[in-house]
Amino acid sequence: MSNPGKRTILIFTDCDFGQANVVLSTVYALVRADPNIEIHVASQPGMQRQLSLIIKQVSNDLGFAAAESIKAHDLVGSSHWDAMERPGNPNLDSWACDPTIPNMVSMLSVLPGITLPWSAEEFVEIYRDVERVWSEVQPDVIVVENFFAPALTFCHNLRPKTPWIVLAPNTIKEFALSAQPGLPSLWKYPIFNSAISYPVPLHQIPLNIFYNIVAMIAIFTSRRRGRCINRMNEQLGQGLQLITVNELGLLVPPPPGIRVMVANSPDIDFPFDVIPNFMVPCGPITRPAAPISTEDPELALWLSRGPTVYMNLGTHSSFDVAKAREVAYAFRSLFDAAKTSHLNNLQLIWKMPRVASEGDTSGFEGPWKEIKDILESEMDQDRVRIVDWITAEPKSLLQSGHIICSVNHGGSNSFHEAICCGIPQVILPGWADCYDFALRAEFLGIGKWASRTARPLWKRDELAKGLEEVLLGPQAMNMIKRAQELAKRHPEGAGRDRAAEEILKLLDGNNTNGKNGKY
Fold it and tell me: Pseudo-torsion of CA 137, 140, 146, 151, nearest 10°?
């Protein structure tokens, strides 16, 4: 049960980092904004470590009492990502392929399994556990992460209603396309994962239309949704409406009354004629991060020695020697070009988790010696650090003031954190909406997509060219200026504070009748 003296917010989310990150950011902002609320976070057990870190930070920044107001609840079942990634599921394999026409058709054909990756039996089991937590907490307001379909479905069908709202780490594009006049999703905006440019070039419009048709056929002929609805009718009662991310604006506008907060805003997305009324663009929702001097004093001292490039391709990326070799040669070219420039003391910190199948995963012996040989001069001077793990949060490095370029995979968190810190980007997208973020970086004038020809991997010459354009090229200063302008519009914490404000408005507007306020 919740504390009877406090108003209660219940948050349902998958534990997957990309999804949970905006939730944890918003939890921090909520606790800071209102000391008289209690926040219950319900997720899979994999959330425990991430939640404990944010609770620790709340305790450090706001005090023990604030940290005590955050409660955890474990849910049964797999997270959205784990449900897709398990053996025998082809969905993630098709995501990470080169987006050729055959591979795109393969990926789009399994799209229903991406938006609804659980079996019908699993879905009902998770739904019931969501209901259990709701019954125990009896919240005043519910927040649901947008890919957690069992919780979306429960909240929509709950009677009497508990006020609820959706929180998404995604951009405006994902939820606004279906509301645009003239069907521009066919001829203007590239379908996700396609690597088609924005706006769609004239000669690629037929291909973009074809991909959209394939996606629609896959979605509307899939039996997955029907099996889930049948199971719901058998086990949970007749007439329940299934809600997935598709019903939040991706394909059709959400049911009346449902609002969707997104971690993005119009000035950092593609331009749209219409921003639907159900959307709340919050701007980047990023987690607070302790100063690098607190998190890792030795690394902070090293960063202060000179301008530094930070390369981190996300939690799901790992390197074999072949991949690492291409990156190493690209940086070799960059260091050589920088010798006669204002960046002659350039540094590199490269997070490089390695595949276990290629020898020692920490040193530079055996096949990994080649990587050290390529960058030996800079490594011997301690100007290059290649590590498999960095203790500090990525944002701690970015906000240190010493990072001059973020080399990332185009994940939403990486892209938006770099924007908030005013740092130009070199993007190496490998799947799904990462291609869109690479396009955004170029459209906004804050970076380069440096793997167009080698996607979903990279080649040394193309990567080197991208690095040199962002750091040393004729447009480098303009990219820095543009990135810093966007950072001024999106200062640290503004997005998460906006999300918290929206949730608290819902709480204030629907709490006049006590628990489970009424519409």
Answer: 40
Mark whether 302 and 265 lie in a shared domain. no
Closest by CA to 475, choosing from 497, 515, 445, is 445
Q: Where are the beta strands (DSSP E) in 59-218?
A: 70-74, 141-145, 164-168
* Spatial contact of 422 and 404, defined as CB atoms under 8 Å apart: no
* Cα angle: 410, vertex 427, 24; to 5 degrees: 30
Q: Return the bridge partners of 407, or none.
A: 311, 426
DSSP 238: T
Domain housing 172? 7-85+116-178+236-286+493-509
- Considering only CA atoms, give the Rg of the chain: 23
pLDDT in tens, 115-136: 999 999 999 999 999 999 999 9
Token pair 């004239």 in the structure block, residue:
202
**pTM higher than the cut 0.85:** yes
Tell which wins on pLDDT, 512 or 419: 419
Question: What is the dihedral sign for C-alpha 240, 246, 252, 253?
Answer: positive
Question: Is a pLDDT exceeding 70 seen at residue 519?
Answer: no
Enumerate the β-bridge partners of residue 425: 406, 447
Residues 281 and 427 in one domain: no
Asked if 137 contacts 2 with a C-beta cutoff of 8 angstroms, the reply is yes
pLDDT at 104 over 70: yes
- 303 and 254 fall within a common domain: no
48-62 helix and 17-33 helix, angle to the nearest 10 degrees: 30
Token pair of 59 as six digits: 């305790």
pLDDT, average across residues 306-330:
96
**List of E strands, 269-414:** 279-281, 308-312, 347-351, 384-387, 403-408
State how far Cα 396 lies from the chain centre.
Answer: 17
According to DSSP, residue 7 is labeled E
> What are 406's strand-pairing partners?
310, 425
In a domain, 276, yes or no: yes
- pLDDT for 11-26, tens place per residue? 999 999 889 999 999 9
> For the stretch 357-374, what's the b/e string if a residue is b when 16 or more beta carbons lie within 10 angstroms of its beta carbon?
eeeeeeebeeebeebbeb
Strand partners for 135: none
Residue among 225, 226, 265 at smallest CA distance from 245: 225
Q: Which two tokens stand for residue 485?
A: 């302008």
Q: 19 — phi, psi (to 5°)?
A: -85, -45
The rounded distance, in Å, linking the Cα atoms of 375 and 331 is 8
| Helix, strand, coil percent values for the chain (each to nearest 5) | 50, 10, 40
Tokens representing 492 are 């640290």
- Identify the pLDDT of residue 357: 73
User: What is the domain count for the chain?
Assistant: 2
| Pairing status of strand 141-145 against strand 37-43 | unpaired
